[in-house]
Each structure stands twice: as C-alpha cells, then as structure tokens.
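User: Before I run my own analysis I want an independent prediction to cross-check against. Here's the chain; please return only the structure tokens and, at the end, one sentence I can use as a sanity check.
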Amino acid sequence: MDLYEALSGRACSDNAFISITGGGGKTTLMTGLSSYLRSCGRKVLMTTTTKIRSPYLLDYKADRIFSDDSVLSFAPDGPCSVIYALENTEIGKWSCPPLENLDVLRFRYDVILCEADGSKGLPLKIHTHRDPVVPAFTTYTISVMGLWGIGHEAKDVVFGDGRSVIVDESYLRWYLQDPEGLLKGSLPGHRAIVFNGAEHFTDTGILRNLDYPADVFVCTASEQEGVLYEQL
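Assistant: Structure tokens:
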C-alpha cells in the first residue's frame, strides 16, 4: 500500500493543517506527502513551528520558496507545493514564521504540512514543556519514530534521554504512555503513528505487543520508498 495515499486519505480534509512530531523522518514524510498531494491536484504549503533545513541545502521538491511576508501576496491557482519559513543564515536553518500568517494561509491551501518538532536527526524524541509546537488550529497530528533506534542505548538514539537503558519493548511501552513521549501534542481522534524504516526492520512482533490508543492509526512504513508495510 502507498504510505502517502493512506495518510492523505485519513488526514487531509479541506484546509487541513497537519503537524508532524517525533523523530526519525519528519522532513522526509513532509516532503513525500507534499509531493503526493501535489500530484493529486492539491495546493500544498510546507512550513515549520520549530526549525528546518534550508530549502537551498535540501530539496523539498517545492515549486516556490518564500522566506518573508511576500508569501501573503501569492495566490495559488492550481496544484503546487510551496515552502515558507524564515531564513536564518547564521544557523543554516529556517525557523517558524508568524503563526498569524499560517492561520491566514491555511485558507488558501488545501493542506498545510508543518514540521512541529526537532530531534537533531535522532530516531526518538523525549519532549520538554516547550515542545512539540502544535498550533491550536492543527487538524491532524502524525508522530514519527525511526525503527533503527530499537536495540540501542537511549543516550545514543533518543533526543532528551541520556540514560544507558536499551530501547526495547519495555522502553517503547513507556515511550507510548509517558506524557512527554511519542504522542505528546497529538490530537485525540485525529492522529497517526508512523514507525519509519520498516525496509530494514524485521522484528515487528515487538510493535504488535504494544498497546495503542484505539483512535490512533498506526503503521510501519518506509518513507523513502513511500510504502506502508503493515498496519498495527
């Protein structure tokens, strides 16, 4: 099954605002979902409420790039993929634009995809009181976790956890239930979990043994391939 088709069918309504949290594939998922939606004739805006890599250094497959309020003067009249964030040449990343601008823009696009978390490239993320940054007008949340973190010590693969404990079934059970864990910021009734990296992970039994909230769509997938491997 196509991963992006499955996610768009669940998450994308008119003027949808999708916040992507967690670690291990947020940017890849945002880019892949944007490209899929554009191919389906949708108008899509990509943005962030934290920081993302510069679109001049990473290919987001965007038709237009905006780094200032000129985005407010652009009226998309057909299928497109647009990226909008504030350029910061000092750190080499782009940061969150004014939320009031995003609130206006969500009525101009069919879907806004927002990278709403940061994990410094690590596959798992433990949150603090400051994150994830999920705007109040979010309509759907997708929490991402990289499967390549399983079996390693938390201090090496979990942003925000310096312990020398192994990321195993017990750890993942805690990670799902803890208020600062994977599902922090997710919207009850309108949320998904994507376990990314399934093309290199065969021990899915560890994931089937976990308890997930009944309202969450959960799958293992390869974001790079765009393939949904298994719905849990």
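Sanity check: Residues 7 and 76 are 23 Å apart (CA to CA).
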